[in-house]
Write a structure and sequence with these properties.
Layout (H helix, E strand, L loop, with lengths): L1 H17 L5 E5 L5 H16 L3 E6 L11 E5 L14 H5 L8 H17 L1 H9 L4 E6 L7 H6 L3 E5 L5 H7 L21 H40 L7 H5 L4 E4 L15 E3 L14 H7 L6 E5 L11 H12 L4 E5 L11 E4 L4 H6 L3 E6 L3 H9 L4 E3 L6 H11 L2 E3 L6 H14 L1 H15 L5 H14 L15 H4 L2 H35 L1
Parallel strand pairs: 1-2, 1-4, 2-3, 4-5, 5-6, 6-7, 8-9, 8-11, 9-10, 11-12, 12-13
This protein binds 2-acetamido-2-deoxy-beta-D-glucopyranose (NAG).
The site of 2-acetamido-2-deoxy-beta-D-glucopyranose has 11 residues, from helix 6 and helix 9.
């Protein structure tokens, strides 16, 4: 604690020397999901490290005061909507939880967002606080944009996944569905004809729902929880559309080396990997021993923080253990319960310092659920993967790893153990997977600034330039009919139809006259 405050004082002095101003920042990360908590915590950490004062809306309230400049707003009530047990892998496998259903996802995210805005802790904060900038996690509803209106300050969106049409909608316009799939779809370019048709159809339908169905839900919540607050504070009440499209910037948890190279507006910034520590923390003694115990290498297996290995069906668990038993490598399996019948070369750990394991030179393979944090960490350290995607963007991440050539992809079916064995044998037996992982790692690391410096630079830029209006895409103000030339298309179509109609009419009258002649004759 003492050491921490000392570090902080030295840091603040250094910042004074460099002349960066300290801001009051509101960080909005209300989703009760562990990986989102990791992203929120690390964002807040970097902002605090830069000397700012941060108010953090989080469902993971920590009793112990963690930093003199941090104030937490507790929204743990959001755990009533989703929590660690929502993602039972058996329910996902049986199709009972279908997170590819946009209506279900919207419902969940909308409930969390409206609950957050209604939360008495949040309401009190809106009443009493002032901020220079709001950083809000985008989760498929736009409601958190209203914090920026309440505080009359710029808004920075934070996007947890690779750039997709919904987030780009808010600062520029949807991406091209000819090469950019919805984040939940198992599609990576190049698309087939069918893929393109399906993406176009899906994105047009969803776009319609966004503006005609979901929109009214959001306006309802805005009128209920925000408008009274604006009135109380004497702030003129803007239209909801003015609020939601007013974001200055998107900070995206993405990196081009592990996503697609696509054209993005100047106010989208890649900051993927910012949650990864600069220095690798040393492994605990027992794990260090295991990591060095086998000259054939170590395999690390973890399904991430939302999905639990213990929820896998028993036959699959046993099948996987059988596969591991036959390997000459040693396996570290992050598993939430004690497995009595684990073979000698399998070590079960309840918790694992994933980054430190991935950093170890003896690690030869990472078997992962393909979450973006795990994928980013694996490329950070240049380790090949076998992915078992379960939901959300994991299918796309896993498929991209396969297409880029640093991994294989296994579906979560009763056949998993057999498929897993094939995929693992392939990746372990073929050095090209590891060498692609190393090459991508090099491309990923070779950049001018670290992701955390990128965050602080752009937040500073947005505050200094009062919302960075010069970075805003000119396309955002264009209605769709102008953007896609639908008006021009309509004129061409109408003209063509008119000409065809006129020619047909003329033709008919000419032929009917001559027909008439024959009849009278
Ligand atoms: C829009 O953003 C600017 C700065 O970026 C802010 O000053 C203004 O209050 C915002 N307007 C609304 C309606 O949120």
């Amino acid at each position: 604690m003492k050491m921490d405050s000392l570090k902080w004082i030295i840091f603040s002095c250094l910042l004074c020397l460099y002349g960066t101003e300290a801001y009051k920042i509101l960080a909005v990360f209300p989703l009760p999901s562990k990986s989102h908590g990791i992203l929120g915590d690390n964002m807040v950490k970097h902002l605090l490290d830069a000397g700012h004062e941060v108010t953090y809306i989080t469902p993971y309230y920590k009793e112990t005061k963690t930093h003199p400049n941090l104030k937490q707003i507790d929204v743990s009530a959001n755990k009533e909507v989703i929590n660690e047990n929502t993602m039972d892998i058996k329910l996902v496998m049986a199709g009972i939880i279908n997170l590819e259903d946009p209506d279900l996802v919207f419902d969940m995210m909308f409930t969390i967002a409206s609950k957050t805005l209604e939360n008495p802790n949040v309401q009190e904060m809106m009443r009493n606080q002032k901020f220079d900038v709001v950083v809000a996690e985008y989760m498929f509803v736009d409601l958190y944009s209203s914090f920026a209106t309440v505080f009359q300050c710029p808004l920075v969106w934070f996007s947890t996944v690779n750039p997709h049409w919904m987030i780009m909608n808010l600062i520029d316009g949807p991406l091209n569905p000819a090469y950019n799939a919805d984040y939940t779809h198992n599609r990576v370019t190049p698309f087939t004809f069918y893929d393109r048709v399906m993406e176009l159809w899906h994105q047009v339908v969803e776009q319609y729902k966004l503006t005609h169905k979901y929109y009214y839900h959001e306006v309802g919540a805005y009128e209920k929880s925000i408008v009274p607050m604006l009135k109380e504070k004497g702030i003129p009440v803007p239209e909801y559309n003015e609020v939601r499209y007013n974001g200055s910037l998107v900070l995206g948890n993405s990196q081009v080396a592990i996503s697609d190279a696509i054209a993005l507006p100047p106010n989208y910034k890649h900051i993927g990997g910012y949650h990864i520590d600069d220095e690798v923390k040393p492994l605990p003694e027992n794990l260090k021993k295991i990591m060095e115990s086998n000259k054939n290498g170590i395999i690390y297996f973890s399904l991430g923080s939302n999905i639990k290995s213990k929820d896998l069906p028993v036959e699959i668990k046993e099948g996987i253990l059988d596969v591991f038993k036959g390997l000459k490598q040693t396996v570290i399996w992050k598993f939430e319960e004690v497995l009595a019948n684990a073979p000698k070369n399998v070590h079960i750990v309840q918790w694992a310092p994933q980054q430190s394991i991935l950093a170890h030179p003896n690690l030869v393979l990472f078997v992962t659920h393909g979450g973006l944090l795990s994928i980013t960490e694996t490329i950070h350290h240049g380790v090949p993967v076998v992915s078992i995607p379960v939901f959300a963007d994991q299918f796309q991440n896993a498929k991209r790893a396969e297409i880029q050539g640093y991994g294989r992809n296994v579906r979560l079916t009763p056949n998993l153990p057999k498929d897993l064995k094939k995929a693992m044998d392939d990746v372990l037996g073929n050095p090209s997977y590891a060498s692609v992982a190393k090459e991508l790692s090099k491309a990923y690391h070779h950049r001018q600034t670290k992701p955390k410096d990128e965050i602080n630079f752009w937040i500073d830029h947005v505050v200094q330039t009062r919302g960075a209006p010069h970075l805003r895409s000119v396309a955002i103000s264009l209605p769709y009919y102008q953007r896609y030339f639908l008006d021009v298309l309509a004129i061409i179509l109408i003209s063509l139809l008119t000409i065809i109609y006129a020619v047909a009419k003329l033709w008919c009258s000419l032929t009917s006259k001559s027909n008439g002649k024959y009849k009278t004759n």
